[in-house]
UniProtKB/TrEMBL annotation:
InterPro entries: Methyltranfer_dom, METTL25, SAM-dependent_MTases_sf. The lineage of its organism: Eukaryota, Metazoa, Chordata, Craniata, Vertebrata. Residues 66-343 form the Methyltransferase domain. The gene is Mettl25. Pfam families: Methyltransf_32. This is MET25 protein.
Length: 528
């Protein structure tokens, strides 16, 4: 295959002579074609335990379609991994505005620390967190009302079947309660009233028993109180007898009041616990040498996640994971490959002790492999979006290319630490674009008349089609460069002795979210 694909280039000049063969070669070496990815469905199936999926708000209530898709898919996977590893703490690296962190916390009851280097992001996350906390109970109430409405409809349609289901649920919850408190300290009889709706729950009233019940309700293994409360909330309104009914004597009334108070107390504690689980946004710059204990004082066995961590941050996330015994699993989706630092790029004056973003694995280090900035920039392009008709922004790319010629020829500038940014979208014409850009680059635009700017535009206008073709070739090649970066990270994990499993998983729809691959790993259970 390599011999066949090599004929896409001229042997002497090394110029591209067969575009079709070039495209076939690029497809052949893409991640989707190499067969190295583990399907998301297989991962979720392998991690599946006894817990059922969480019910609650949908992420599109609070975020755009792209972010909603990313958060919903990734949070389900993170929760599955956390349950499998038996952990409740999650560290979200590069958490930004806290979309993933807050959803993991509220929807899945995980304790999440979101760490971002930008204080403005952290402050924004705090504000967003405050608003979410304010509205969270309203969304929960709305969800419960919907469940209650559905239950009422089913009860009216099939009353006999509803009574049978009610009895089944009662027995199931009773079994759950007995398994949780196998010491026999708590006696729960029909937590949900039976089909006749005349039996009431009875509990031992000792202080020790009450303390055990509260502790059990808040433990990792039990969601008993929440299940009971949810069932009570969705039962028909007449399913539970009024506690003040006249046919109960005073002794029974006092006993029932105790039960009611305990249930109310449990409900209040569960609600407060849920609300207190809103995540903690922190501001800190993360490097490979970062000591998490200095940032998180109550660090425990946890999982580290990153949703579109930029540049070296994705690589450092994996390094921290392998180095810190408390971190039992990692799920990292990287982005911004052009910001990666490379060990073998422009080696003059480099510090040999520096930690680089690429390469990570020893195999590529031994070969002295280098991508280069142009290749890494290409890796950021979105082939799948182009394939469905979302074409490249040719005009803005053309503006940028001609601008570079102007600043080199007129100002003699070949490199700059400043960036033009999204100037194109704010510009009314090419002249306006050039003048805005020169100001951003802190170059004097007064010596450049409009006529001179337009001369450059006219000089290169006929080459716009060439630029588009060139960028289409870059788009076709993008998956091949991305696969090199991702396989480097996977190989790094494979080289570690404390990793039980690692793999690449396609998490997202690449049209919605082009950087769609996650690097996932779990440590050996014996590692500590």
């Amino acid at each position: 295959d390599d011999d066949i694909f090599s004929s896409a280039f001229c042997e002497n000049s090394e110029k591209l002579i067969n575009v079709h063969l070039f495209a076939l070669a690029a497809k052949y070496y893409s991640l989707s074609n190499l067969g190295v990815c583990t399907p998301l469905e297989d991962v979720l199936e392998a991690l599946k335990g006894d817990s059922e999926g969480a019910t609650g708000i949908k992420p599109d209530e609070f975020m755009n379609n792209k972010k909603s898709h990313e958060v919903q898919v990734m949070s389900e996977l993170v929760d599955s991994v956390a349950n499998y590893c038996g952990i409740k703490q999650v560290i979200d690296i590069g958490s930004g505005k806290g979309y993933l962190s807050s959803f993991l916390s509220m929807q899945y009851n995980l304790k999440v620390y979101g760490i971002d280097s930008s204080s403005s992001n952290t402050n924004g996350a705090h504000e967003r967190n405050r608003k979410l906390k304010k509205h969270w109970r309203a969304y929960q109430r709305r969800g419960k009302e919907s469940l209650k409405s559905q239950s009422l409809e089913k009860a009216n349609a099939r009353p006999v079947k509803n009574e049978i289901n009610c009895k089944t649920i009662s027995e199931e919850l009773l079994n759950n309660a007995n398994s949780l408190h196998n010491q026999g300290q708590v006696i729960i009889q029909d937590l949900v009233p039976s089909c006749g709706f005349t039996e009431m729950a009875t509990l031992e009233t000792s202080a020790e028993t009450e303390a055990d019940l509260v502790t059990g309700a808040q433990s990792h293994d039990t969601k008993l109180s929440e299940e009971v409360l949810d069932i009570l909330n969705v039962l028909p309104a007449d399913a539970v007898e009024d506690f003040s009914s006249s046919h109960y004597n005073c002794g029974k009334l006092r006993e029932e009041e105790k039960v009611q108070r305990k249930m109310t107390s449990l409900k209040s504690k569960a609600r407060k616990s849920s609300e207190s689980n809103l995540y903690f946004p922190l501001t800190s710059c993360i490097t490979a040498e970062t000591e998490l204990n200095d940032i998180i004082t109550d660090l425990e066995d946890c999982m580290m996640v990153g949703l579109h961590t930029c540049g070296d941050l994705a690589a450092n996330t994996l390094r921290i994971f392998t180095a810190k015994p408390e971190i039992k699993a990692v799920c990292s989706v990287g982005c911004c490959y052009h910001l990666l630092s490379e060990q073998f790029e422009n080696q003059e004056g480099k510090c040999h002790d520096q930690v680089w973003g690429f390469p990570m694995c020893q195999y590529l280090k031994d070969k002295g492999w280098c991508c280069g900035r142009n290749a890494r920039m290409s890796a950021c392009l979105a082939l799948e979006r182009v394939a469905v008709g979302q074409m490249l922004p040719t005009e803005s790319l053309f503006y940028r290319a001609v601008l570079q010629v102007i600043i080199e020829e007129i100002y003699g500038v070949t490199k700059s630490d400043r960036h033009v940014g999204k100037t194109f979208s704010k510009s009314s014409s090419f002249i306006d674009y050039v003048r805005r850009s020169l100001k951003k680059l802190e170059l004097d635009d007064s010596k450049l008349p409009d006529s001179c700017i337009m001369d450059y535009y006219e000089k290169y206008k006929h080459r716009m089609n060439e630029l588009e073709a060139f960028n289409m070739l870059k788009v076709v090649l993008a998956p091949c460069i991305e696969v090199l970066i991702l396989l480097d990270r996977l190989c790094y994990l494979k080289e570690q002795e404390n990793i039980a499993w690692s793999g690449l998983v396609k998490l997202f729809d690449p049209v919605k979210s082009p950087r769609c691959y996650a690097v996932i790993a779990l440590k050996n259970q014996s590692c500590s």
